[in-house]
Amino acid sequence: MKMKFNRRKFIKSTTLISAGAIVMPLKNYAEMKKGILPKEGLKLSFEPYNLQLKHVFTLANSSRSTTPVMLTKIEFQGITGYGEASMPPYLGESQETAAKFLSELDLGQFSDPFRMDEILEYVDNSRLGNTAAKASIDIALHDLTGKIMGQPWHKIWGFSAESTPDTSFTIGIDTPEVVKQKVKEAAEFNILKVKLGRENDKEMIETIRSVSAAPLCVDVNQGWTDKKMALEMIFWLKEKGIEFVEQPLPKESIDDIAWLTQNSPLPIIADEAVQRLCDVQATLGIYSGINIKLMKCTGMREAHQMINLARANQMKVMIGCMTETSCAISAAAQLSPKVDWADLDGNLLISNDRFDGVKIANGKITLNNLPGIGIRPL
Ligand code: MG
Hints:
Blueprint: H1 2-17, H2 23-34, E1 43-58, E2 63-76, E3 79-86, H3 95-103, H4 116-126, H5 131-149, H6 153-156, E4 168-171, H7 176-185, E5 191-195, H8 201-209, E6 216-219, H9 227-239, E7 242-246, H10 254-263, E8 268-270, H11 277-283, E9 289-293, H12 294-297, H13 300-312, E10 316-320, H14 326-333, E11 341-342, E12 355-356, E13 359-361, E14 364-366, E15 376-377
The structure holds magnesium ion.
Magnesium ion is lined by residues 219, 221, 246-247, 271, 291.
């Protein structure tokens, strides 16, 4: 008797929770499955968009002030899932390659968005490469299915929203005055990421330390070449309060990296050396951890698999990003409760975001309860 009462009460309360916009699509979906409504395919559309950067962004061997992206939508039964491909030029994709890739896909053949394995396998097999364009489909599909279920993905995966890490905020290479200014503007963040790999590495760190005692991590972007110099530098960095070092040497220098990891007092994280799930195995014993980015690994589904594989091998996990709108950042943030470090500041670096999404509060990633990937279009 007691169980019956509880069950009724449960059904009543879930009906109340799902009142409103979510009820109709779920009903439509159920009716479609029963054959009452005609089967309808997924409808994909896309739009090129250029992100304006607040500051010129300087890496070890390039600088730029815009990032081209492709914004995607997958519509189904009146619900829209949003996705995004971010394509910094040095990675080889462009709005042209993404448009070509996306226009060749036929998502209309799929009438059940929950068959994600099947859909994403079709997308992945349709062409080699194009990982950002593939991620834009994966993200839109997650947003869509999450909305149909009425739940955000971090909940669907069973993660605790309060376990999210702080996000680091990147300080690009610049003159000491500009660096000091950027560090002061970043006072809200509990960890800063510094791009190294030039002549003035120590000067960069000293400049930051002259205005901030915040924990730092460094990203060398393969900019160092000598393993002994790298190790000496890492010992110096440890003294300066640095937490870990990302991609210190060229990814091809596998033996040198393994030696460095073995002798380093700080964790060595693979970024350029790891793109997809199939690359994780090769980093075991070479690096201490991996940096996962949705744009490199084709999206949330594969990123989740990479986290599990790395964790099962006692590796550290970091989730990173490109310059992106709050769409792709919020998608990556859904996975953030399961990582050691997050570098999800890409949306904070642009002045023309198209979405309202996951926020940073006191430097920490703060997930919301919106279904899907947690965004609203602006
Ligand atoms: Mg990196």
